[in-house]
Amino acid sequence: MTRGLLLGLLVVIGYLVFEFGRIQGGYDVVDAANEREQYEVRIAGLEDEIVALEQEVALLETHREIDREAYKEVENSLTTLQAKIQEQRDAIAFYRGIVSPEDGNKGLRVQDLKLTRGKEEREFNLRLVLVQAMRHDRKVSGDVNLSVEGSQDGVEKSYAFAELLPPEANKGWAFSFRYFQDFDRQLVLPDGFTPERIRVEVRSRTRSIASIEESFAWVTSQG
Fold first, then answer.
1. Contact indicator for 199, 97 with CB cutoff of 8 Å
2. What is the pLDDT of residue 202?
3. Measured distance CA(188)–CA(221) in Å, rounded
């Protein structure tokens, strides 16, 4: 019993000596506890700030995405509007060419000829628009014939319309209209042939309305 008390007393004395030593070295248990509590409070505050900043960043990202989408929407609307305006301008110019062309010439004319590439390498799509300018008191009828001029393996060569058609295509090309008529035809160029010009002959069968013949450079555009 006495031995146990002695051991307990030694432990207490040892702890007191240890604490005395720390106090002598400037260490205060109460101050240390207070300091640790302050650090814990500061850490909790910093963690709250981090959460708040993360939420602010997320909000800013959301606003930026909304602004980006709004800008895209405005840009797309502007592009669509510009395209519609151009379509209207083209339509006005087209009908002005029928009613009152700039050169003042009456009768048949080629209003537009456009070539675009087809699905295959040697295939081309041709769009031709014929109009009757100024005179609309009667229909004009007739047929169209065209040929493509260029070079075949370095030698000048011209192909007639019928020679450039797909096998199943209709070789006839009749027209009949009062104001205008447009056509879409497909051409297949022979291997080794390089086109340079396309000659269009619009042959009228209507009395007092003259036939015309025009030549255009072979220029392809995007479909």
1. no
2. 94
3. 16
Nearest-CA neighbor of 29 among 48, 15, 42? 15
Contact by Cβ (8 Å): 158, 200 = no
Count other C-beta atoms under 10 Å from residue 41's C-beta: 10
Q: Quick one: how many helices (H) and strands (E) in the chain?
A: 2, 9
Backbone angles phi, psi at 152, to 5 degrees: -115, 105
Q: What are the residue ranges of helices labelled H in 25-106? A: 29-99
Q: d(Cα 23, Cα 86) in Å, to the nearest integer?
A: 90
Q: How far apart are CA 154 and CA 193, in angstroms?
A: 9
Position 155: which residue type? V
Instruction: Name the pLDDT band for 168 (thresholds 50, 70, 90).
Output: confident
